[in-house]
Amino acid sequence: MFSPTPPPAGTTAAVSNRSGTVSVRTTEQGLPLELRIDPRELRYGGQRLADEILTLCRRSAMEAGARRRDELARDGMPAEILDQLGLPTRTDVAAAQAIEDEEEPTPTSWMRPL
Fold first, then answer.
1. What is the rounded radius of gyration, in angstroms, for the C-alpha atoms of the chain?
2. Which CA distances in Å does 100 have to 3, 7, 58, 97?
3. What are the distances in angstroms from CA 39 to CA 25, 46, 57, 112?
4. φ/ψ (deg, to 5) at 60
5. 60 neighbors 10 (Cβ within 8 angstroms)
6. Nearest Cα residue to 38 out of 58, 63, 59, 18
7. CA distance 9 to 104
8. 100 or 3: which carries more pLDDT confidence?
9. Per-residue pLDDT tens for 25-64?
10. Are strands 32-37 and 22-27 parallel, antiparallel or unpaired?
11. For 25, which of 14, 49, 88, 90 could close a Cys bridge (C-beta 3.0–4.6 Å)?
């Protein structure tokens, strides 16, 4: 009897929303591998939750891509090749996060139910 072989190890990243109630772990292509949703998020409706999950998948994919770029750069791959692969830099990740932070409305209260 053969034991199942695990999938090949790839670069992944996990991100959460600001309140920590939704988190995803994805591959560098944005494929979700793990999703955690606090039950309190369900009160906002399916469309809002779906939008939040997609946003987090994009952020996670960008972070995983930057990690992959860092790994390949450490292994000696030239920056020109990394650019052609379309892998984001840490600066790209930070700029995208800054834009999202500006667009996201600030909460009306920092209090959370117990």
1. 17
2. 44, 32, 11, 5
3. 18, 12, 19, 13
4. -65, -40
5. no
6. 18
7. 33
8. 100
9. 999 999 999 999 999 998 888 899 999 999 999 999 999 9
10. antiparallel
11. 14
pLDDT of residue 1: 46
pLDDT at 78: 93
Supply the pLDDT for residue 4: 52
C-alpha 108/C-alpha 105 separation (Å) is 9
Yes or no: say if 79 and 73 are a contact pair by the CB < 8 Å rule. yes
pTM across the whole model: 0.78
Using CA atoms, how far apart are residues 114 and 33, in angstroms rounded to an integer?
29
Nearest to 36 by CA among 54, 26, 22: 22
- Helical ranges in 5-108 per DSSP H: 46-74, 79-85, 90-103
